[in-house]
Every structure is written in structure tokens, then in C-alpha cells.
């Protein structure tokens, strides 16, 4: 598992690197002292897991997380900070985990192992094999739903709402988790708040500043914005 460290304090970076390099299967792909350096380094090294501080000069960890959410391949984010009061904000940007300084070796190892399980394909499936049914919720009722029935998922006010052909459902998965489960079935993250089933895209419409919006094939012809960071991937996917 490739890991990237972001912290403006060199001693904190050294300590975290020391601990991570002693965890089996972990490769520290790089580190950065601020958000701007981190964004460049993460784009180059494409880590699967990023540990980032919150309070940094310039681009904060929370602001950096919003930029990382726009990347075609999004790493899992673990906030590593001395401030517990930022936990809610961290999970609002879909943090995978939240660690407090000073680092606890066992707690860190548990986080890494949990990330490894999240990144691994489910047992009995090869990477790229279409996903099995996803548990969606209508009230307290569980609705097992085949991926092909799902049009898109949207992050709304701290929860993820899934739009299927027959209505809206809740899910207990984050948008990042849904993306990992559904990408083999043709789902693409076109915006930090939207995951789209490309099999249900009716039209790709040019929008302002060289961007696009998607028109879905549901009755309402739902419109999905494509962020400027995802335009190249969208063009590549549809051979535009």
C-alpha cells in the first residue's frame, strides 16, 4: 500500500514515517510540508492512503481534502492532528479515519489494516468484476439493489442519497466506499459530490469554462455537474 504524509512539522513527519515503515506492506511514497506541495506530490505518486495534518500554513488539511476529492483516483484520507475538535469537519469531507497526536503505534496499525481491507477486492471476486447487490434503505427497510438499477449517488448534507429508477434511497456507505464497490460496474466520480452510472447517461452537454454537465436517462432528466478536475477523465471515458 502506497502512503503519503502531509504535515508542516518535520518531527511529526519523521515520527509517522518511522512508524509506517515498520508496518508490513506499507511503502511511504512521499511527504510534503504544506498543502500545495502535497497536491503536486500526490498527483505524481498516486498513493492509496494519505495521512494529513489539519492546521497548516496556506492550504489547510480540510481544504486539501476538497481538492483531493476531485482527483480521478482518490486516496483514502486519514487526518492526523493534535486537535480533536476538527473530527466532525474531517468526516464531512469523507475522512477514512482520524488519529490524534502523539501517535499510538497500535492504533496506527489498526488504521492501516482497516485501509488495506477497504482497498482489497471482496473475497471471491477479482478486481474489475461487476459488483454484487448494494444494501440501500427506505426508512428501516433494507432494499438489496443491483448496481445497474442505480443512476447516481449524491452526497447531501452529510449523508449519501442514492437515486435509482424507482426513487431515492439512503445508504450507510460514504461516497468513496460506494465508488470502490461500484466502479467495476461502470460508475465514475465526476464531482466530489456525485458518483454516476455511465450506463444511464443520456447526454453529455458542454457547459461554461470548458466544463460539462450530464443529463441522465431518468424521467426527470437529472442534471449532474462535472468538475473541471474530472473533465479529462470524462472525455477519455466517452472518447470525446
Automatic annotation (TrEMBL):
Residues 134-240 form the HTH LytTR-type domain. InterPro entries: CheY-like_superfamily (IPR011006), LytR-like (IPR046947), LytTR_DNA-bd_dom (IPR007492), Sig_transdc_resp-reg_receiver (IPR001789). Residues 2-116 form the Response regulatory domain. One of its GO terms (molecular function) is DNA binding. The modification 4-aspartylphosphate is found at residue 53. Keywords: Phosphoprotein. SUPFAM superfamilies: CheY-like. It holds the Pfam family LytTR. PANTHER family: STAGE 0 SPORULATION PROTEIN A HOMOLOG, TRANSCRIPTIONAL REGULATOR-RELATED. This is Transcriptional response regulator LytT. It comes from Geobacter metallireducens (strain ATCC 53774 / DSM 7210 / GS-15). The gene is lytT.
Amino acid at each position: 500500500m502506497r502512503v503519503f504524509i502531509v504535515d508542516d512539522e518535520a518531527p511529526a513527519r519523521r515520527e509517522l514515517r518511522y512508524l509506517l515503515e515498520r508496518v508490513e506492506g506499507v511503502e511511504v511514497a512521499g511527504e510534503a510540508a504544506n498543502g500545495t506541495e502535497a497536491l503536486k506530490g500526490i498527483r505524481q505518486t498516486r498513493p492509496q492512503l494519505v495521512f494529513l495534518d489539519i492546521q497548516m500554513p496556506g492550504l489547510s488539511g480540510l481544504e486539501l481534502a476538497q481538492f483531493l476529492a476531485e482527483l480521478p483516483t482518490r486516496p483514502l484520507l486519514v487526518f492526523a492532528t493534535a486537535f480533536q475538535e476538527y473530527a466532525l469537519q474531517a468526516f464531512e469531507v469523507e475522512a477514512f479515519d482520524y488519529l490524534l497526536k502523539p501517535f499510538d503505534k497500535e492504533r496506527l496499525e489498526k488504521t492501516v489494516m482497516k485501509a488495506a481491507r477497504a482497498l482489497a477486492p471482496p473475497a471471491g471476486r477479482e478486481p474489475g468484476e461487476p459488483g454484487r447487490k448494494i444494501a440501500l434503505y427506505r426508512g428501516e427497510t433494507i432494499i438489496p439493489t443491483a448496481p445497474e438499477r442505480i443512476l447516481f449517488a449524491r452526497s447531501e448534507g452529510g449523508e449519501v442519497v442514492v437515486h435509482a429508477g424507482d426513487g431515492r434511497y439512503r445508504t450507510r456507505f460514504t461516497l468513496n466506499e460506494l465508488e470502490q464497490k461500484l466502479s467495476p460496474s461502470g460508475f465514475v466520480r465526476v464531482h466530489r459530490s456525485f458518483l454516476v452510472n455511465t450506463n444511464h447517461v443520456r447526454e453529455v452537454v458542454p457547459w461554461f469554462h470548458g466544463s460539462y454537465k450530464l443529463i441522465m436517462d431518468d424521467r426527470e432528466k437529472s442534471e449532474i455537474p462535472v468538475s473541471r478536475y474530472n473533465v479529462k477523465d470524462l472525455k477519455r471515458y466517452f472518447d470525446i
